[in-house]
Write a structure and sequence with these properties.
By secondary structure, the protein is mostly helical. It is about 80% helix and about 0% strand.
Length: about 180
C-alpha cells in the first residue's frame, strides 16, 4: 500500500467515524427522554404541596434523589449537545476540496513545468500527489481530533446517564417501599 492509499483510507475512516458519532447520540437522547418522563411521574406521585419540610423521611429521600437525577440529566444533556454540535458553534471538519480545484492545481503544475521545464527539475504528477497527500494528512488529523473530542463528550453523557439510571432504580425501589 502506498502513502496515498494509506492516508486516503485513514481520511475516509474519520469520515465514517463522524457519521457514527452523529448516529450515536440517538440512544442517549431516548434514555434521557425516558428518565425525564419517569421523573415527572415520580414528582406527580408525591404530595409535596405541603412543603418539603412537612414530607415524611422516605418522601424527602425520594425528592433529594429526584433532584440528583435531574442534575445528572442536565450534565448528560449538555454533553450530548457538545458531542453532537459543540454547543451552537458546530464542528469544523476539514474537507479536501472540490475536484475542479484539484484539477486546476494539477494543470497549473503541468503548465508551469511546460513553461519553465529547462529551469526546474520536478515531475508535476509527483508534486500533485505529494501536495494531495499533505492535504489529506492535515484534514485527517483535524477530523481525528474533532472525533476524539466528540467521543469523549459522548462518553461523559453516557456515564451521567448510567448514574441517573441507577439512581432512578433506587428511587423507584424507595417509592415502592413507601407505598407498601
Amino acid at each position: 500500500m502506498d502513502r496515498y492509499e494509506h492516508y486516503s483510507k485513514l481520511f475516509y475512516e474519520e469520515l465514517k467515524n463522524r457519521r457514527d458519532l452523529d448516529r450515536a447520540v440517538n440512544i442517549p437522547i431516548l434514555v434521557i427522554t425516558t428518565l425525564i418522563a419517569f421523573l415527572t411521574y415520580i414528582i406527580e406521585a408525591l404530595d409535596y404541596k405541603t412543603g418539603f419540610f412537612n414530607l415524611q423521611i422516605k418522601e424527602k429521600i425520594i425528592m433529594i434523589l429526584v433532584l440528583i437525577i435531574f442534575l445528572f440529566l442536565i450534565l448528560s444533556i449538555i454533553n450530548v449537545i457538545k458531542s453532537y454540535n459543540n454547543h451552537l458553534k458546530g464542528y469544523n471538519y476539514e474537507i479536501l476540496g472540490s475536484n475542479q480545484e484539484f484539477e486546476n492545481y494539477r494543470e497549473d503544475l503541468i503548465e508551469y513545468k511546460n513553461n519553465y521545464g529547462d529551469e526546474v527539475e520536478f515531475n508535476p504528477e509527483k508534486k500533485f500527489k505529494s501536495e494531495l497527500i499533505k492535504k489529506i494528512v492535515f484534514a485527517t488529523d483535524n477530523n481525528s481530533e474533532i472525533n476524539i473530542k466528540r467521543n469523549h463528550y459522548l462518553f461523559l453523557a453516557k456515564r451521567h446517564i448510567v448514574i441517573a439510571l441507577v439512581l432512578s432504580f433506587v428511587t423507584f425501589i424507595t417509592l415502592v417501599i413507601e407505598k407498601i
